[in-house]
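re the bet — no i am not wrong, look at it urself. input seq straight from the record:
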Amino acid sequence: MFDLLNPQPIRKLLKAHQSGRQDNHKLLFSLVMFEQWLRANHIQRTEPDNMADSEMENSTSGIG
């Protein structure tokens, strides 16, 4: 998860949930949504940078 969270405690939460010892569905769902948000924002942040790099290459090569 983008090296922000230690995976071992998350695995423990999941195992406890799967075994029926604990009901961690809300926390696990929140972690999944957090990961999806990180992925979406990471992609959105890198796309404009890539576009800016392409525009720089075009302007330095005499194109555009």
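see?? The two ends are 40 Å apart (CA to CA). told u. also The helical segments are 7-19, 25-60. so pay up
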